[in-house]
């Protein structure tokens, strides 16, 4: 079952960089949006009916509008392409409520935001918040060139200009050294946040891990990366509903979401590929085989939640808080 959506009107469109367009939307019913946490993302359903997740990149304290940005993907199956080619000012879209899996740790002594390409978007909403609470931070933005870098006029103005460092045309071979250099003086209680292509984030994480503990390194993925098939998951297992004691069998070709639907239990879903966190459910007992891309290391280690669209079980029975 798809999470609840509501109608918005497109009030402004901007070409922010080569292939990156931003959208400012307001509610059709004229009501303000609920406030949201910096780093949050929303579901957006475009003209083709395809739903994708996009990070909010405006000021989280502004409730009149939501701003998100979309990169036109070469291999788009219609989602990003239709948002670029078919949407005009005045168009109506459907969006979901913000969800956040990429949280600021506001008690950190220093915040180091490292983004590449369209990965600037969640970091921008974090930057608004960090300015608002007067927290020390630096936003490092990597892009192929100036024309590929989004929001440059905004980043070049106060209050962001003194926090922003731009890195253009850094090749794959030089990236590790560049990141090592910029993280060398990181305070030991600093937190690092990164968003961008998976290979870029892998290098950021490798560099940050040389200096900081794992729980001080945060990342946001835009799409699922292939998982190696784990050897420990079971082909078939049972899911038990904690509230009723009812049990349903999950076989090798069925997701937990689909198995639950077969006994009339609907779990909200959106991406269906373990990225957005919509289908997250608390685990009462049993050992999940986590195949998502959105839980934190701490959540994985605790086995306290599971993303039911993709994850499976290592134990014969998984009891869920439903
Ligand atoms: S529906 Fe997005 S993580 Fe499961």
Automatic annotation (TrEMBL):
Superkingdom classification of source: Bacteria
CDD domains hit by this protein: fer2, PDR_like
Keywords, alphabetical: 2Fe-2S, Flavoprotein, Iron, Iron-sulfur, Metal-binding, Oxidoreductase
FAD-binding FR-type domain sequence ranges: 3-105
GO MF: 2 iron, 2 sulfur cluster binding; metal ion binding; oxidoreductase activity
2Fe-2S ferredoxin-type domain: residues covered: 237-322
Name by which UniProt lists this protein: Oxidoreductase
Organism for this UniProt entry: Caballeronia cordobensis
